[in-house]
Amino acid sequence: MKAGTSGTTGRIVVVGSLNADLTIYCERLPRPGETVHGNGFAVNPGGKSANQAVAAGRLGGHVSLVGAVGEDANGDMLLASVAGAGVDVGHVRASNEPTGVAVIAVDANGENNIIISAGANGTLSPTDVAEAADVLDNAAVVSLCLEVAMETVVAAAQAGHGAIATVLLNLSPYAEIPPALANLTDVLLVNAHEAALFLGDGASVPGADAPAADWDAVRQRFAERDIRQVLVTLGPQGSVVLDSLVGPDGRVIFVEPTKVYAVDTTGAGDAFTGAVAVRLAAGDALADAAAFASVAAALATTRKGTQTAYPEAADVERRLRGSHRS
């Protein structure tokens, strides 16, 4: 991985989606066929890739975003939000399709459900990746998710691999990936459900309180699929680092959760991903990047919205210093 020097970080290139988040707040999420009353509505900038880019930018990363938006008010809102976080949007293309949208319901406990409509995101292609060669060729980290076409994700991973960058794949929303993409992935980021689906054959993932030996068996199964560094997020139970590239003592590391009062968990996983990208681009070890990201993601849940809720580096560092003193 190419990392920054003299206190700077290498370039992070995020390839993927930008969505307008149409969010309704309610006491509880509706059951199938049920209507519930909402108690608030907001239109906010979102999309997994845009969120990750903004999270990384607010944390001090040197970030470029490759994507597509419609020529509409939602596209203007997204470009303003992403650029406002210091992210280079020179490779976010205007599309004839409307900007992608996500319809989100958030309950009183901060939990959510989400439906997305791809819109302009569905037009992002390997051609867009090729046209972003100027930033991809100098990337330290290439951050990917699955809200755009698989062929586009694979093309971006190939470009990152060719640039000797760290290819960070957030396997969300979950889909089966081709072996070629697994081979190109340096760090896989999944939640427990996604991890079980990826491993298949009725696999289950241990809980946060499971012994390290149980998690080491999971690490070995990922390694058999050519994935040697994995971050498994466990929501309020923290996360687990599975690293087959280090010695036996560091192959399974538990990252304690950061305790906060959560009001909206939407986009917390993207905050985690963006924070991991920032620290990997700075040359941190995977476990150290995960510890930093744990705090960033937790702080993101303490305010409503997605990009507007993401913390800055000083917020995370302050919380980390406080936890080290306690």
Count of DSSP strands: 13
Determine the CATH superfamily. Answer: Ribokinase
Q: How many helical stretches?
A: 11
Overall form = globular
Assess the beta-strand content as a share of residues: 25-35%
| Low-confidence runs | none
Helix/strand order, N-terminal first: EEEHEHEEEHHEHEHEHHEEEHHH
Radius of gyration: 19 Å
Mean pLDDT, rounded to whole units? 93
The N- and C-terminal alpha carbons lie at a distance of 34 Å
Spatial strand order of the main sheet: 5-4-1-8-9-10-11-12-13
Coarse structural class: alpha/beta
Q: Main β-sheet, in a few words?
A: 9 strands, mixed
Question: What is this entry, summarized?
Answer:
With 326 residues, the protein is α/β, with parallel strands linked by helices. The chain has helices spanning 48-58, 73-84, 126-131, 133-136, 150-162, 179-184, 192-199, 212-224, 268-281, 286-300, 313-325; strands spanning 11-15, 19-26, 38-46, 62-70, 88-95, 100-106, 112-117, 139-144, 166-170, 187-191, 229-233, 239-243, 252-255.
SSE arrangement:
Blueprint: E1 11-15, E2 19-26, E3 38-46, H1 48-58, E4 62-70, H2 73-84, E5 88-95, E6 100-106, E7 112-117, H3 126-131, H4 133-136, E8 139-144, H5 150-162, E9 166-170, H6 179-184, E10 187-191, H7 192-199, H8 212-224, E11 229-233, E12 239-243, E13 252-255, H9 268-281, H10 286-300, H11 313-325
Parallel strand pairs: 1-4, 1-8, 2-6, 4-5, 8-9, 9-10, 10-11
Antiparallel strand pairs: 2-3, 6-7, 11-12, 12-13
Helix pairs in contact: 1-2, 1-9, 9-10, 10-11
